[in-house]
Write a structure and sequence with these properties.
CATH topology of the largest domain: D-Maltodextrin-Binding Protein, domain 2
Helix content: 40-55%
CATH architecture of the largest domain: 3-Layer(aba) Sandwich
Structural class: alpha/beta
Strand order of the largest sheet: 2-1-3-10-4
Strand content: 15-25%
Number of domains: 2
CATH class of the largest domain: Alpha Beta
Number of helices: 18
Length: 381
């Protein structure tokens, strides 16, 4: 059967769609014998539905969303594939200026306000099973705030975050750039933490597809991964390339926002909105010599542990077997070879998160059940 050469790929208007956009703009897809047809999506739920229905072949997508679809959380279970990690780091938690002016300029201050007032602050994330929901809940819980009892969590598309914060519809949000940066620039928001301080070098968006598409189009899938590796390498090569990517992303076809709102944090230059400026040593990365792209099994398993922790999964799955099925590591290694990118021989990695807990994928059941604040449903406790 002839494989697809034209691949319709969805993206959300976020800075970390840059590899997909630049692979198309620079013609890197054609170098590998495929043609990318990009489709700008408006919400993660809409993208999920179009991916599942086959209207999209692949997508720049939340890692946790793909695992949620695989497990049938909030939708019919559909076998999915993670082909690569598109980025790492570069998300943020931002609160309203009004809340910051009440003294909430840290997680500790937020926890103190919740304890003293009993008020449930409203925080937005971008999708219930997605990265931002899991990072936000982890961050709140690390400060002693139960995200389901002490706060109200709502879902808002990323492009609407800054506007909703400015309008007073919520107290804060966790989302990808440039929307936290936009909130700081327009004066409505104050960034309290960046995601790399929650989980250093965490996985960002993934390149996702339905499993049946990958199975039917293995050569095209390898070509797509190789082209995106080339694009990530090009972006990370210099600040000049990052500036060029920011200019492309700012256009109406992609993010439709001011280039400067993208460029600062894309280059690691942060302003928290309260006068603190810093250059982050490890901001949003698209390549990092290939380290940012490998689809570690332990990364996928982490999202499952958090979905279990918060009651989205009623039982503990076979974490390792599930991740080995979803994350197409061998296909990635073959694509990396095509692009001349080194790939590790291991499939797990070790990380230390903000609360000092070590995550290495070796005992996911114990990890999921080790948190003092949780919503573990009956089954496998």
């Amino acid at each position: 059967m002839t494989e697809r050469t034209q691949i319709k790929a969805g993206f959300m208007p976020l800075t970390d769609c840059a590899s997909l956009v630049m692979a198309s703009v620079l013609g890197l897809d054609q170098q590998y014998g495929i043609e990318l047809v990009l489709s700008r999506e408006h919400s993660w739920s809409g993208m999920r539905d179009r991916l599942v229905r086959g209207e999209l072949d692949a997508a720049h997508v939340l890692y946790g969303l793909l695992y949620g679809v695989e497990m049938g959380i909030g939708c019919a279970a559909t076998p999915m594939a993670v082909l690569m990690n598109l980025s790492r780091n570069g998300q943020a938690v931002t609160v309203s200026r009004a809340l910051a002016e009440q003294g909430v300029t840290s997680l500790e201050a937020l926890a103190d306000l919740v304890r003293r007032s009993g008020r449930r602050p409203v925080f937005a994330h971008t999708f219930p099973t997605g990265n931002h929901a899991m990072f936000l809940s982890y961050w709140l819980a690390a400060g002693g705030i139960d995200p389901l009892r002490d706060a109200e969590l709502v879902t808002v598309p990323p492009g609407q975050m800054a506007g909703s914060l400015a309008a007073g519809h919520m107290d804060g949000f966790c989302a990808g750039e440039p929307w936290s940066g936009n909130a700081v620039l327009d004066g409505s928001g104050v960034t309290l933490t960046v995601s790399q301080d929650i989980w250093p070098d965490h996985p960002g968006k993934a390149l996702g597809a339905r499993a049946d598409f990958v199975d039917a189009n293995p050569d095209a899938s390898r070509a797509l991964v190789a082209a995106l590796l080339e694009a990530g390498r090009w972006i990370d090569e210099s600040d000049a390339h990052r500036a060029a990517a920011a200019e492309v992303l700012a256009s109406p076809a992609y993010l439709n926002t001011d280039m400067q709102a993208i460029l600062g944090r894309l280059q690691g230059q942060y302003d928290d909105g309260l006068g603190r400026h810093w250059r982050d040593p490890d901001p949003l990365r698209f390549f990092a010599d290939g380290d940012a792209n490998f689809p570690w099994l332990s990364d996928g398993m982490w999202f499952l542990t958090q979905q279990r922790r918060w009651g989205l999964l009623r039982e503990d799955p076979d974490y390792a077997a599930l991740a080995a099925r979803v994350n197409r590591i061998e296909l990635y290694r073959e694509a990396a070879l095509l692009a001349g990118v080194a790939a590790p021989s291991a499939t797990m990695r070790s990380s230390v998160l903000m609360d000092g807990k070590v995550w290495n994928g070796l005992d996911p059941h114990a990890y999921a059940h080790s948190f003092a604040i949780h919503r573990l449903a009956p089954g496998g406790a």
